Amino acid sequence: MPINIPKQLPASGVLKQEKIFVMDEDKARTQDIRPLNILILNLMPEKERTELQLLRLLGNTPLQVNITFLRTATHLPTHVSRHHLENFYKTFSEIQSRRFDGLIITGAPVEQMAFQDVTYWDELTDIMDWSETNVTSTLHICWGAQARLYHHYGIEKFEMHRKCFGIYEHQISDHTIKLVRGFDDIFHAPHSRYTNVSREAIEENPNLTLLSVSEQGAPFIIMSNDAKNIMITGHLEYDATTLAEEYERDHSKGLDTDIPENYFPGDDVHAQPPHKWRSHSHLLFSNWLNYYVYQETPFEWE
User: Fold this and answer.
1) Is the N or the C terminus of the chain less surrounded, counting Cβ atoms within 10 Å?
2) Which residue among the candidates 140, 188, 191, 235 is catalytic per the annotation?
3) Residue 111 scores a pLDDT above 70
4) Does residue 263 lie in a domain region?
5) Whole domain around residue 282: which residue ranges?
6) What is the model's pTM?
7) Are 235 and 107 in contact (CB under 8 A)?
8) Per-residue model confidence as pLDDT tens digits over 1-20
C-alpha cells in the first residue's frame, strides 16, 4: 500500500524511480479505506534528505499512510529553503487539535548541548506531552530518543570520550516482542553521536524495557511498557553513504573525527560502503507501523 504525500514534494520523484509505492493527495481522496496518519517532527538540518530516508521505510508496508511534516516554530532551520518549509511543513499550533496514529521524532545535531539550552526545548516538550494523549505510538530516533528518555523518564545523557561513529553489531534480548519480530540474533545498525544514556538507568526503570544493546553493551532499542514510546539510539534510517558524507563534512570543518568503524571496506575512505542494515531498517518500521500503530489505533478518534 502507498504513502500519501504532498503532490510536489521533491522526494516524490526519487521514490517513484525506486519503485516505492507513492500516491499523491488527489488520488488518495478516492480511496474508501482508513489510512494511517503519521506525523514526522523533522529536526535534522538537511530536511529533504531525512524526508527521503524515512519515506522509503514508511512506503514499504501494506498500509496506506498519510504523511504530515512538522517543524519547530521557535527555531527556523537554515539548511532548507523557506519555500520548502512553507509548502510542506506545519507548525505545532496548526496540528495540535488533531489526533495522529503515529509520530516520528528525528535526531538533531544538538546532543552536546544541555537539553534546556536547545532553543526549541520548551516547544519540543509541549509536543511530547501532547503526544501522550493525541498519538497512538511515537518512534524517537537518536537525540529524539534521548530527549524523551530525559523528559518523561528522568534519564540524563552523558558525553562520551570519543564519538560513537560507525556500524556496530547488536543483539536482541527478547525475540517474542513484536517490535523485533523477524530480527536476526545479530544485526547491524549505524550510529553517529557524541552522547549516550545509561544502560543501568534504563534497566532499573520500571516503565521501560531494553530490547537491544550494541556489541559494546550500549542501549539501542528501548520501549515503554505501554508501547506508546519507542526509542532508537542509532540511525537505522540512514542510507549506505550517510556516514561517509558525515565524515567528509566533519573533516571539512576541521574536526578530528575518526574513520567510521566497521564501515569502509579496508578502512579505505574511497571505497563504497556496503548497506548491511537495510533489511532490519525496513523490518523495524514495518513492525512499528503494523503492531504498534495499525493494530492499536482506533478506527475513529473520539
Assistant:
1) C
2) 235
3) yes
4) no
5) 3-239+275-294
6) 0.89
7) yes
8) 556 777 778 888 887 787 66
Domains held by the chain: number: 1
CATH label of the domain that carries residue 137: 3.40.50.880
Q: Is residue 234 part of a domain?
A: yes
One of 111, 123, 142, 170 is an active-site residue; which one?
A: 142
* pLDDT: which is higher, 63 or 288: 288
Residue 216 pLDDT: 87
Strand pairing report for 219-224 and 208-214: antiparallel
Q: Residue 78's pLDDT is what?
A: 78
User: Amino acid identity of 18?
Assistant: E
Q: What percent of the chain has pLDDT over 90?
A: 75
Average pLDDT over residues 268-294: 95
Q: Domain for residue 251, yes or no?
A: no
Give the number of other Cβ atoms within 10 Å of residue 240's Cβ: 15
Whether 237 is a known active-site residue: answer yes
Determine, yes or no, domain membership for 79. yes
pLDDT digits (tens, 9 = 90+) for 211-228: 999 988 899 999 999 999
